[in-house]
Every structure is written in structure tokens, then in C-alpha cells.
Amino acid sequence: MGEEDEVTHASAGNDHSKVEAKLVLFRTQRNVFERHITNLHDKVNSDGDKEDARVLECRLQILDSHYRQLCQIQTQIENLQSTDTARASQEELFIAAKVKIMALLQAKRRPSAPPMAESSFINTTMTAGAAHHNRLPKLKLPSFDGKYATFKRFKSTFANLIHNDPYIATIDKFNYLLNCLSGPALEVVQSFQITEDNYSKALERLDARYDNDVLIFLDCISSLFALPTMTQPEATTLQKLVDNASAIRGSLLSIGSAEEIMNNIMIHILLSKVDAQTKAKYNEQQGFDKLSSWEDCCNTLNRRCQYLESQGDHQSDQRGAKPKVKQASTSKTFVTTNANCVYCNSPSHYISSCNKFKELSLQQRIDYVRKAGICFNCLRKTHCMKECQSKSRCKICQSVHHTLLHNFTQGANLRMPVSTAPSKVQDSNNAMPQSSALLVSRTIKKGIIPTAIVQIRDKFGQLHLVRALLDSCSEISFITEETAKLLQLERRRVQQEVSGIAGIRQKISHNVFATLKSRCSEFEWSSTFSVIKKICANQPQETIDTSEWCLPPGITLADPQFYLSTKVDILINTMGFFEAMREGKYNLGPNMPCLLNSAYGWIVGGSIGSADISKAQQCNVVQEASSLEQLVKKFWEVEDCITKPAKFTDEEQMCEEHFVNTVRVQQDGRKASF
After folding, report:
1. Rounded to whole angstroms, how far apart are CA atoms 127 and 131?
2. Which phi and psi angles does 185 have, rounded to 5°?
3. Measured between alpha carbons, how far is residue 56 from residues 42, 43, 347 in Å?
4. Do 521 and 420 meet the contact criterion of CB atoms below 8 Å apart?
5. What is the pLDDT of residues 82-102, one digit of tens each?
6. How far is it, in rounded angstroms, from Cα 610 to Cα 620?
7. What is the DSSP string of 234-285?
8. 324 phi and psi, to 5 degrees?
9. Which tens digits make up the pLDDT trace of 603-636?
């Protein structure tokens, strides 16, 4: 037993000697790393103000590396000797050195930025830096496309994720910035060379371009009025609408007061009611360095009003000073102070509104006009038809005579007015000249052409609501002159010719580039639009009764008022049409249109039952008719291609014989009765 005790005692002595040897080795290594950290701290205290930020970043990485190894060694010592208390002094030494380096980096690179990495001490431990970030889910980098309202949010998010991170090199930050930008925002900084020095310049350029409280405020106002309209009672849609409005209100209150918000909403509504030129003049006079007040808006518009009044008086004086000009002298023949009917001598109306004159037969009206020497076109007694300056034409055949003098026996079933029937003839003097060509077809179906209410960006990036016609057959997109002026889009002169039905051609002299945005999604589409005076007539041609329609609940219509006959501002070509289409189709029933899902919402299109064949149907041709006679002649040539039936009924035979005996085709192609 004595020998065994001696062996055990000797073994324990050997283990103790090994532990002591390890402790000596670990303490020596610990002293080395403590000395490295102390020297680094002293170096930063003495020369840190003179060193470059990149040198300080390297020293910060070296400090983290020394401390990680020191922590590993201290852990080994504590495993062998649990009473060791050196860790506390090591932590204090490391913290003092790191705080000093971070303070110097903050002063050199971001004087106004908060201290980096002070939110958690985990970044300073063995698993600091990349190990800490690996435990968190990856955040998606923000994007910015040039919308003023989203710039501050983008700026804050980019600064927290990229700009304020000391472990990302400056050149990488620049590349991250370029990847986050798109559209007009990318064009602002795209000209900079990707260097470390240009990174700060690019940020300053973005701030100068988009960090404008006035433009952000106006963009929020426009977004408020661009919120989609609910068509069906639905909790999700209502909650989304309330959330968006609340977010916009919060953004507005962060920039201006409640009074300023009210004033600018009033200004926005007022400017939406004025003409395009007045709105453009108002925007040109704004400095965009402070929010507009109601008083300034009223003063600016009052000066505009005074200018227009002075221009009107000046032009009147000029017309009075030059009575010998032919245009001025002929225009005097159309000026009258009191209405006077030349047929019944009533002072309360003109002959075109005279019920007694309308009660006469067509031949009696024609005979009276010839005998009284009245103009066949405008029914005025001051001139003959050759000298008539009125642009009004017959609303039935578009020829140079008054509608009350139109002979309905000449193919009346083929050429009818678009908006009136023969029994409801209007005064042609009140009719506006048409810029669309009409081609009548005997169809038994009426149809709806798809339309959508979309947002379009103006010169300043603000969004406006316009009504778009989605044409899957057009190769070119169009925009009306009125809309282009309202948006103040930059025009580019071109020499372009477009053709439509029957090869009718028209020259296009200007193009604009515009971006459309959906009201109900993030979809955007940019294209070149040809500027034209008028795209087509109101769509649909007449208001449609949808009271008995059963629309599916929970859908967002691209045009909530598709059934109202209103004007069209832009036309989207076939590329834009199919690019916006999405999966989804809903049929409303037989003889009813269908709903197609698109990025702009659900569009409505298709047939809507039987149509009255006595009414004219319209084929919209984008063209300004330079020669009305040639255009009508082409239509007659198309009509001449109609073949006769193989056998007439008794009534048809009588009509055919009457037509052959009473109608002749003149040399100019017109058909006249005798």
C-alpha cells in the first residue's frame, strides 16, 4: 500500500507541474496580446488625429483580432485556474482602445452620423462582425426611382444598412448605391465615375435634387388625390385606403402645419380647374424653396387675369384700327346684337330655331332660302354661301349646307349623324368641327373599347390622372395636345406619318416621352407618345346603363366610370396593352362584356347586346380631314362596292325604281335628286 501511495502522489505532482507549465505559457501569451492592445491604444492616442480614416479602420480590425485571441487565451486560463480575475481589466483596456478609434472615425468620415456599432457589445466579442450579422435575416436593399415622397425613407434606410457600416468599403458603398437607384434617380448620378471620392459627391447630388421639402409636400398632395376609388364595400380595400391616407397625412404633417396642408389642398384643387397655360405659368413662377400660401396663389392668378384682360382689350383695339383687312371686314357680317328670325320676324330666336320654319317641308324650306337670299350653310342673310366663313357643316353628310336643308332621301339609311337622329336635328351653327372620320356600318352589336384611369408623370415628376384607351391593334401611342401641355412634357420635333382606316394618312410633327403608373399596383410603363389634337370621339359613344349588371365583388376596375361617355386623353399601343395584361377573365353573361385582369385593374370590353341599326356606328380614325369632299367621295366608293341582292321584294323593287328615276351621280361624285 505504501508503494501505491507514493505512485499516486508522484502522479499528482506531475499533473500539477503540467498545469503550472500550461498556466505559465498561457499567461505569457496573454501578456503579449495585452501589450499589443496597450501599444495600439497608445499609438491611437498620440497619432490618431493625423491618421487617415482607412488606417484607423485597419487598426480597428487589428484590435478586434487581438482581442479575440486574448479572449481565447483567457478562457484557457480560467479553465485551469477558475480564480483568475484578469478578464475585467482586459475588457476595460479593449473598450478604451475601441472607443477612441471609433470616435476618430466618426469625426473624420461622418461628423453628423451617430456612433457606429454602439448598440450591442456582441460586436466586440469573439463572434463579432460577420458572425453577428449571420444570425440575423438578410434585409432587402431599398430602391429609389425618383419619387420625391419616398426619398427620405430611402435615404434613412440606405444610411442604416450601407452608408453607416464601417466594414463596407467606400467603393462598394458606391456600387450598392447605383444598384438601388433606377429611372430618373439613376440618371442623376450615372455620369460620376465609380471612385471613392465621387461617392460623397453622388450623395450630395441626390440630396440637392430630391431632398426638397416643397416638392415632397406637393407629391404627397398629388398622391392623396390619386388614391383609388372604392367600387365595392370590402374591409381589406377600405383598410388599405385608410392606411395610405394616414401615411400621407403623417408625411405632410412632418413637413408643414395643418394650415399649410389645407392651403395647398385648396391650391391643388384650384389649379386642376384652370386651363393648361395658366397652370404652366403658375408653376414657372414658383421658386419651390418654400410652401405656397393661399394669398400668393390668389395674387399670381389675379395678375394672370389682369394680363389676359389687357391682351383682350389690345386685340380689340387692333381690330378696330384696321377695318380694311379682309378677315376683319368679313367677320363683321356675323356680329349681331339681337336675335331676329328672318322667317317669322321674331326677335327671340334665329331661323335655325324657328318651329314654324321647321314645320315646312324640305322643298319649301329650300325654296324659301333661295327666294330670300339666305346663306345655305349658316342661314344668315348677310352673305351668300360662297362667302360664308362658318366652319359648321351638315351634321348628317358633312357637306356645305345647313342640316335643315339636308335631303334625307339620298341614302339616309347609310349616312346618319353620330349624336342625333333625323327627328332631333340640332342647329348646325352650334356644332363644333369634327376631327374624326366617320364610317357607318350596319351592325347589330354594340361594343365597349377598354379604357383605364392611369397616372402619368409631368415634367416635375408629379402624377396626374388621365383616361387611357387600350388599343391592341395600334402600333403607336398617342397623347392629346391638351394633355401634353398640361404635363409640360418636353416635345421633340419629328416627321412621322400614320395611317388608319382606308389608308387615311396624317402627319405627326411632335413626340413626347412619358411614364404611366397604375393606380392599384407598382406597375409602370414608359413609351414615346405622338402628339395629336384629338384621338377619337368620346368613349363610349353614349352612356351605358349598368344598373342590372352583376359585377364580381372585391375587384378594382381600371376605369370605375367606364360606362360614362367622356373624352380620351391618351392611347396605349399594342405593346403597352399586352405588357399590362395579367391572368384572369370574367364573363358577365350572354350579350354582355367580359372583364380582363390587367396591371391597371380589371378592364371592361366586348359586346353589350343589340344596337339600333338606324343609328350610326363610329370607326375612330386618327386624322384631320384636309379635304372633306375627297373623304366623302372615298366613303361613297366603298358604298358602291355593295352588291345587289339576287331578287328584290315588291317593296324593294319600288324603292329601287324610285331611286334610279330620281337620283343622278354628279361629276364631283355626289348624288343629287332632280
Report:
1. 5
2. -65, -40
3. 13, 11, 97
4. no
5. 888 888 888 888 888 888 888
6. 20
7. -HHHHHHHHHHHHHHHHHHHTTS-HHHHHHHHHHHHHHHHS-HHHHHHHHHT
8. -85, -10
9. 998 877 655 444 445 555 444 444 455 555 555 5
Do strands 524-532 and 477-480 pair parallel, antiparallel, or not at all (unpaired)? Answer: parallel
The C-alpha angle with vertex 14 and arms to 11 and 16, in degrees rounded to 5, equals: 110
Burial of 130 (0-12, 13-18, 19+ CB in 10 A): exposed
Handedness of CA 628, 634, 638, 639 (dihedral sign): positive
The pLDDT-based confidence of 138 (bands split at 50, 70, 90) is: low
- Provide the percentage of residues in the chain whose pLDDT is more than 90: 5
In angstroms, the CA 524 to CA 461 distance is 13
Q: Where are the alpha helices (DSSP H) in 110-195?
A: 130-134, 151-158, 170-180, 183-189
Cβ-contact 63, 44 below 8 angstroms: no
442 with 619: CB under 8 angstroms? Answer: no
Q: Cell 334610279 identifies what position?
A: 660
What pLDDT, on the 0 to 100 scale, is given for residue 131?
42
Lowest mean pLDDT among 248-252, 301-305, 517-521, 572-576: 248-252
Cα separation of 90 and 38, whole Å?
10
pLDDT in tens, 148-157: 878 888 888 8
Q: Quick one: which H or E segment has residue 95?
A: helix 87-109
For residue 438, the model assigns a pLDDT of 36
Band (pLDDT 50/70/90 cuts) for residue 328 is very low
Which of 168-177, 313-322, 509-518 is predicted least confidently?
313-322
pLDDT > 70: what percent of the chain?
Answer: 75
Which three three-digit cell numbers place residue 361? 317641308
**End-to-end Cα spacing for the chain:** 153
How many other CB atoms are there within 10 angstroms of residue 178's CB atom?
Answer: 14
Tell me the three cell numbers of residue 148: 420625391
Distance from C-alpha of 342 to C-alpha of 384, rounded to nearest angstrom: 15
- What lies within 8 Å, CB to CB, of 289 at 6+ separation is 214
Quote the pTM value.
Answer: 0.32
The C-alpha angle 191, 193, 197, rounded to 5 degrees, equals: 120
Average model confidence (pLDDT) for the chain? 75
Burial of 85 (0-12, 13-18, 19+ CB in 10 A): exposed
Angle between helices 170-180 and 196-210 (to 10 degrees): 40
Measured distance CA(362)–CA(402) in Å, rounded: 12
Closest residue by Cα to residue 436 from 156, 665, 668, 628: 628
Judge contact between 368 and 391, C-beta under 8 A: no
The more confident residue out of 452 and 383 is 452
| CB-based burial, 244-266: b 16+ in 10 Å, e otherwise | eeeebeebbeeebeeebbebbee
Confidence of residue 326 (pLDDT cuts 50, 70, 90): very low
Contact 662, 673 (CB under 8 A): yes
Q: Give Cβ neighbours of residue 525 (< 8 Å, ≥ 6 apart).
A: 515, 516, 572, 576, 579, 580
Residue whose C-alpha cell reads 396624317 in the numeric block: 506
d(CA 379, CA 95): 100
249-298 residue pLDDT tens: 877 777 778 887 788 788 888 888 888 888 888 877 776 667 777 888 88
Three cell numbers at 364? 319649301
**Residue 170, class by beta-carbon neighbours within 10 Å (0-12 exposed, 13-18 middle, 19+ buried)?**
middle
